[in-house]
TrEMBL record:
Belongs to the glycosyltransferase 2 family. The chain crosses the membrane at residues 248-266. It holds the Pfam family Glyco_trans_2_3. InterPro entries: Glyco_trans_2-like (IPR001173), Nucleotide-diphossugar_trans (IPR029044). Gene3D superfamilies: Spore Coat Polysaccharide Biosynthesis Protein SpsA, Chain A (3.90.550.10). Residues 93-247 form the Glycosyltransferase 2-like domain. GO terms for molecular function: glycosyltransferase activity. This is Predicted glycosyltransferase. Keywords: Glycosyltransferase, Membrane, Transferase, Transmembrane, Transmembrane helix.
Amino acid sequence: MECLESLKHVNYDFYDIYLVDNDSKKESVDYILNYLENDSYYSHSLVLKNQLYNYVKSDDVDILFIINDENSGFAGGNNVALNYILKTKLTDYVLLLNNDTIVSPDFIDGLISKFNESDDTGFVGIKHYYYHERNKLQTVGGGIVDLVHGEAMAVFDDTRDSFDFITGSCIFTSVDVLDEVGTMNEDFFMYWEDVDWSSCVCEHGYKLRISNRGCIYHKEGASIKSLSRLYYHMRNRIFYMKRHTSGLIYYKFIIYIVLFALKEFFMNIYKNPKYSKVIINGLKDGLLKQNK
């Protein structure tokens, strides 16, 4: 609700909101519907995912509230709306925005301006500050990938002009780029999908850039359990390296990640067996499962 409230104050009038409920509890859906039905600013329409592709959105609908029929992860949840936008072509630009954020009034203006500075721009990100510490920078909006260790690292230097990925909590692009590159790879479920997607954009010849106007304030995944985070980070960094590296770079990484996982497993097998099990499961699934 805070995110929707903050979007009321942006200095840009020509936008619609696609709000996807990713199979959360019924109380959450009811809470959002109660907010929308009692709000005088937004007009809304609700549609189930299995009815979405026959749905024709009218111009007077500000928020299309989409009810997903399964928890399809960060990638799959976003793709529900992205695929609808690709089908309908109702807009020229697309902005992915996490629900656990609030925004500055000028953030859309900054994103559009930066995107249109160069014809080769693929994605644009924006500065993130911590929600609870408004003066503390979380990331400039992008990061770099350490291909030796398979780590995605946030960047804090706002003078940097080269990035390997744009942070998934705020990604701005055009429908033309989206149409060419495609949506996110749902095999990742959560974590690394934004890094993978950014790499796909770069492999199509586009650049990643950061807006120097506006910002968002981000609560940063407070609801995600740490063991789930650990599993997906282990598995998906292997998925990423499989998709975007080869030869010596890939084999050196595999040696590193196997040795790292075994070390973590044996160091924690008695004092934290759940941790050890998750590490090995993530390693095994990353190595053995085939992803697209």
